[in-house]
Write a structure and sequence with these properties.
The protein is α/β, with parallel strands linked by helices. The protein has one domain: Nitrilase/N-carbamoyl-D-aminoacid amidohydrolase, CATH 3.60.110.10. Helix content is 25%, strand content 25%. The strands form 2 sheets. A 6-stranded mixed β-sheet has the order 5-4-3-2-1-12. It has a 6-stranded mixed β-sheet with strand order 6-7-8-9-10-11, with helices on one face.
């Protein structure tokens, strides 16, 4: 079984109406490309705009069950394709940086809010998410266990580790920052150390402080019947705007997870007490 993910590396429009129009057209194109899942970059509803004025910020925030988000759920059902839509979520005391994953029937199977907000910068205006979640995503040919981490979550090994321990095989990672050597290395490492795939969707060049280079690391560092190591990076998009599909071989990943030594195989959690103190 394979999982085809389309990374929607798009420039945002000027308002919510344009975001909806651009986003829905991109999902249609992703379906034409044969995608099982279409993934948006971080906080697509407003193009990662975070006003530092509380009233202006709250005006941009949307309810998780509101019209904008639900329209992508309806589109997922119509296209028979999962959609990971990202948005600034209305919440008290402060908004959340969230993603809702709708399955091919239009059911929201995963609702995640960014745990590691960039509180040293503009995201000081946001609340933090409370936990990491894993969902069973039915893609027709079978089911895959999917989790989410958003942008800065990537920098904390605990994010992907918790998702792995909860059973995740694939992590969807909406993003809004420059993807350079060290951030790409962090994504590769999260995939390698947890034996899982990580699909990251960034904004393209032209969006402030972003440069495209969306990636998919499939988590398989070597194969027993092939010499040497293999490159886990099965997709690195260019800087330009576009829709970039990548196909993850889930059968290969699952076989690898059964036999190799990373992930949970030789952990010693009884010795890690300092991590939770």
């Amino acid at each position: 079984m394979t999982l085809k993910i389309a990374l929607l590396q798009l420039l945002p429009g000027k308002d919510l109406e344009e975001q909806l129009k651009i986003g829905m057209a991109a999902c249609e194109k992703a379906k034409e490309l044969g995608a099982d899942v279409a993934l948006f970059p971080e906080m697509w509803s407003d193009g990662y705009a975070i006003p530092q004025d509380k009233a202006a910020l709250e005006k941009l925030a949307l309810p998780a069950d509101g019209d904008f988000v639900r329209q992508f759920g309806a589109l997922a059902a119509r296209l028979q394709m999962a959609i990971g839509i990202t948005f600034l979520e209305r919440h008290s005391p402060k908004p959340l940086n969230s993603m809702a994953l709708y399955d091919r029937r239009g059911v929201c199977v995963l609702h995640y809010s960014k745990v590691h907000t960039c509180a040293f910068d503009e995201e000081r205006m946001l609340s933090e998410g409370e936990d990491f979640h894993v969902a069973d995503l039915d893609i027709g040919a079978g089911t895959v266990k999917v989790g989410c981490m958003i942008c800065f979550d990537r920098e904390f090994p605990e994010s992907a580790r918790i998702l792995m321990l909860k059973g995740a095989e694939v992590i969807l990672a909406p993003n809004a920052c420059p993807m350079e050597l060290n951030r790409l290395a962090a994504l590769r490492t999260r995939a390698y150390e947890n034996k899982l795939a990580v699909a990251t969707c960034n904004y393209p060049k032209g969006q402030p402080d972003c440069n495209g280079r969306s990636t998919v690391f499939d988590g398989v560092a070597w194969l027993r019947d092939e010499p040497g190591t293999r490159d886990m990076c099965i997709l690195e998009a260019p800087e330009e705007e576009g829709i970039f599909p990548a196909e993850i071989d889930l059968d290969m990943l699952r076989t690898y997870r059964e036999h190799e030594v990373m992930g949970d195989t030789y952990r010693h959690p009884e010795k890690y007490g300092i991590l939770s103190e």
